[in-house]
């Protein structure tokens, strides 16, 4: 059979209702195999639209298995992947009358020392985000040797990490932060800290957890020499192609 004028047809086939109804009425008794043949027999022009070999008609259980395999392959190619990053930071106490945790000013009989505003909580959170992105650490993005970050509001650091996450097409699923110190008491400021973190990261507060613990007067935090903070960030990223 010469093949240059043959096509393999698939559904769907689409027609103007009045035209195909009239064509069927005119074709009663004729040996035609599908609607396109009925239309052609009535003198209607049948136009071909290129289809896809994957757009199969699912009739048998074998067809369904084939469709499921194609669907799974497509999902795997476009799915997101989940990553977790961790961050840890310490700042020592020095003379002063407040500390800044997650951008919230908390009165205290000492202050944290540091090149920036020494917001140990935001630094741990920033490193958690950068870790999940495998994008270095806070020091590689904002070198302490650079005078422009002296006294800087640490909101700049975490906003930069959030920008990198957005640029990668990702989103923050959850951030869990633990502040470790004997004093000041963190609990009265927990909700304000959550709200500020959520604002800086442009997510709902329900995606942000702020916790606090002491170390039972053990170690440098127990001796009230400074504050430590650790954080875990869970992010969703478009799946990277394995090249
Ligand atoms: Mg720090």
Which ligands are bound? magnesium ion
User: What's the β-strand tally?
Assistant: 7
Sheet with most strands: strand arrangement = 4-1-7-5-6
Strand content: 15-25%
Uncertain runs: none
- State the order of secondary-structure elements, H for helix, E for strand: HHHEEEEHHHEHEHE
Q: Give the C-alpha Rg.
A: 32 Å
| DSSP summary: helix tally | 8
Give the distance, in angstroms, between the N- and C-terminal Cα atoms: 44 Å
Would you tell me the overall average pLDDT? 93
Shape: rod-shaped
Largest sheet: 5 strands, mixed
Helix coverage percent: 25-40%
By secondary-structure content and strand pairing, the structural class works out as alpha+beta
Walk me through the structure.
It is built from eight helices and seven strands. It is of the alpha+beta class and 243 residues long. The protein is rod-shaped. The site of magnesium ion has 5 residues, from β1 and α4.
List the helices and strands and how they pair.
Blueprint: H1 17-26, H2 35-41, H3 61-78, E1 80-94, E2 98-101, E3 104-107, E4 111-112, H4 120-132, H5 138-141, H6 155-167, E5 171-180, H7 190-201, E6 208-213, H8 219-222, E7 226-238
Parallel strand pairs: 5-6
Antiparallel strand pairs: 1-4, 1-7, 2-3, 5-7
Helix pairs in contact: 1-2, 4-6
Bound molecules: magnesium ion.
